[in-house]
Amino acid sequence: MLNRLTRLARSLGHRAKGLVRDRAGGSMVLVGFATVPIVAFVGLSGDSAIGYLVKSRLGQAVDAAGLAAARETDEVARDAALDMYFDANFPENYMGSTVDGPYLTPSDDDFQLTIEATAVVPTNFMRIVGIDTMTVAARTVIERARSGMELVLVMDNTGSMCCDSDPNSKINAMKSAAQNLINILFGNNDSIENFWVGVVPYTSMVNIGDETLNRHLWLSDYHPSEYNPSDWKGCVEAREYPLDTTDDPYTVATWTPALYANHFDNYWDDQDEVLIGHMRDELGYTDGTTLPAGIASLGDFITDYLEFKLNPQSWHKFYTTDQPWQQAARLVLGYSSNATLPSTTTLRTYLASYLTPHSYGTTLPTGDTLRDLLMEAWFRRSYDGRNNNQDWRLPIIRDDYDDFNEGTGPNLGCGPPITPLTDNRNTIVAAISEMRAWHRGGTTSNLGLVWGWRVLSPRWQGLWGGDPGLPNDYFDPSQPTDDSNQPIDKVVIILTDGNNQVYDHKGNGPLSSDYTAYGRLGDGRVRQNGTGSPITSSSGARNELDRRMGEICAAMRDDGIKIITITFQQNDSATQALFSACASPRDPDDPTGDRLYYDSPTNEDLQADFEEIASELSRLRIAE
């Protein structure tokens, strides 16, 4: 078509010039002059067609580049995406054009990006009348949709995500990716109208918040004195099935506070029980923290323990003549078997020196008995390899996240609390930053997810504190949109790096496991199909928790909640299948199609997946 127009224009031009030279008749001169505008008209049509093609292609390139750039939060990455997508959609020298741009201008709130570009196109026909080029322009405005959303991040905070001190750890990769998602969704804003975010960290239990938030009002059988010298941190046990799979609020059924009781795998309470439990464990007695049958006193039991730890042939004669505390002193201080111990006062001085600089300096606290000091020194040297490297007194409370599997106390394994829905960006940033890898107990993604549901459920409206209107009611698209029926999307993102499991750290834990939100495995609280026979195997417990999680997923989707699932550095096919089946369909009109499930085998994959999710949730659109 272009070639034909060019040939036609040239032919008419040649004829026009001939007619001008022809002096045979005046009428022919008039025809010649009339041919010039005809040629210009034909040229205009041809060049306009070329200009239209360039402008159309330029507009497509600007739209594609704008959408790609809007998905990036980092300015350098944004500009790189802008150029890359523009160049891919508008080839260099397209139709002989020269491009100026693209140029990107963000709005003050970073919710709109304006992208502009121009192209100078050489003409083919209009040169005859002195027009050598045409300039076409394209402009687009990319805007993030501002319809309402409640978003809850349900994040695995179990020990396998360890460790916070490692910048490349899974816990830090998850926090970085989640923070990036918040940056994308909030833009440069501290808050956005009709946009709220909550955070639900989970381990083998969930922390609902402590007494400062009046969460003790949600409990039954709560006795603060049981946690002394600590305080209840906020974790709760699961309610009995099926209430552990529903969004029923505490006004329907309360929770029992989580209390990791003192036992030989969690010494923290009475110092005699601590010592007895330690010795029972090493001597192979049945689990417990009381004196075994047939042993009359703690002193006798210490004698038995020393006989076990030392050579009975060379030490036996001293057991019958010395006091147990003297024997313990020899063991702790490294005295020979026949050495005469100094006086009690001098022995206390030796112990003070031995314990420096861990606790006491050079002067022992008033009131400490020799027995107390010996017990502490003994534990420093012998218990679980803690040779002179811990700073603790009995009772032993060590429940910070960096105590790892060697932590102790009534709140052992209890992570940070739920952050209910808020529109305050700084609050969410702080909640993400607070997440840590908490050890012991196992993983219960089913409980993390159901608490995510409770954070979103209108049945909890006004119960979390803060805004009494949160969570919002579910949107009913069949009814008119008004103050009581707003198009508020409800979204949960749940991530795990492990399988649902009831964990047993020591391998011979009392009642066959650590303590979890379902108690210990031997308590029989995890039952087949919810109400059947008690499950006593870890594999059976996993299958049942997986089944319950499937129930929760289905109920949440039925309520219209969008579930996005992520398995992170997780190679277990059963868990991958569970999380894939839990996720919502990408296309609501195609329930059997692709699902909102992401498998992230590396830290880099997780970052990219969170960015894709953020893009999906931001719902970028071309506003102009």
Explain how this protein is built.
This protein is 38% helix and 13% strand. It is elongated, with a radius of gyration of 37 Å. It is α/β, with parallel strands linked by helices and 624 residues long. It has three domains: 2-144, no CATH class; 149-208 and 408-622, von Willebrand factor, type A domain (Rossmann fold); 271-394, no CATH class. The longest helix is centred in the N-terminal third of the chain and has 45 residues, at 26-70. Helix 2 packs antiparallel against helix 3 (75-89) and helix 12 runs parallel beside helix 13. A six-stranded mixed β-sheet has the order 8-5-4-10-12-13, sandwiched between helices. A four-stranded antiparallel β-sheet has the order 1-2-3-14. The protein has a two-stranded antiparallel sheet with strand order 6-7.
Short description:
With 624 residues, the chain is α/β, with parallel strands linked by helices. The chain is 38% helix and 13% strand.
List the helices and strands and how they pair.
Elements: H1 2-21, H2 26-70, H3 75-89, E1 98-106, E2 112-122, E3 133-144, E4 149-156, H4 170-186, E5 195-202, E6 206-207, E7 235-236, H5 271-283, H6 298-309, H7 312-319, H8 324-333, H9 344-355, H10 370-382, E8 419-422, H11 425-434, E9 442-443, H12 445-456, E10 489-496, E11 501-502, H13 538-558, E12 562-568, H14 573-582, E13 597-600, H15 603-618, E14 620-622
Parallel strand pairs: 4-5, 4-10, 10-12, 12-13
Antiparallel strand pairs: 1-2, 2-3, 3-14, 5-8, 6-7, 9-11
Helix pairs in contact: 1-2, 2-3, 4-11, 4-15, 5-6, 6-8, 8-10, 9-10, 12-13, 13-14
